[in-house]
């Protein structure tokens, strides 16, 4: 199954640019987390997010890189884990170092098939239809397509929450409203090496590579009374590169509809990109 991860290195390098986000649902009751230690709240949140079957993410990510310059990505993603993996990712803004992606981009993932709609990519590959269909078995052979598919791998809600459980200094700093819901605000830092160890063994190497551009990461997370995060902000820096991401989560476990584009709008990945 395709892994989904927030790629900080990709964002900092500007090759694909990262986006991430979150905003959500819940009650307005007094958050029960006030009765628990901050580290316990994060541990419980990580467990709860692992069971979330669908959610929506809104995100803004800003990066600087000593060679590439500054960049920004804004967009949203709709995620469904069951009955089959399905993702609908839209990038409204994607720019880095003065270069931008005219018209943005959209990518769909349905099971083992991805659909990519990027005007610039269409011209580059010589595709005749708005959408390009890419079996995941072929995606690794096309660097251009993989660049956009990698965006889908950057929204793992459960994995992101696991990273912050590595914090040794997290503390509650108050109760605030996030999109009209009461949520407890926690703040802290996590060392990248320790954070990666929170992930399953088969995901650590990829995450370590993605996080290599940063040192200690400062984070703020807002957790509602149901134990699920409503907002996550992260920022870090290393050797002149910086990351500043804000994520808003909503729609936990709500029914979603993610469908393939109409057949007459879809073309195959041109052969000369997979050979």
TrEMBL record:
GO cellular component: cell envelope
Primary localization class, coarse: other
Cellular location(s): Cell envelope
KW Signal (keyword) present: yes
Keyword terms of this UniProt record: Cell membrane, Membrane, Signal
Top-rank taxon, per record: Bacteria
The keyword Transferase appears for this protein: no
Signal peptide: 1-23
Similarity-based family: Belongs to the LppX/LprAFG lipoprotein family.
The protein's name in its UniProt record: Lipoprotein LprG
Species whose genome carries this gene: Nonomuraea pusilla
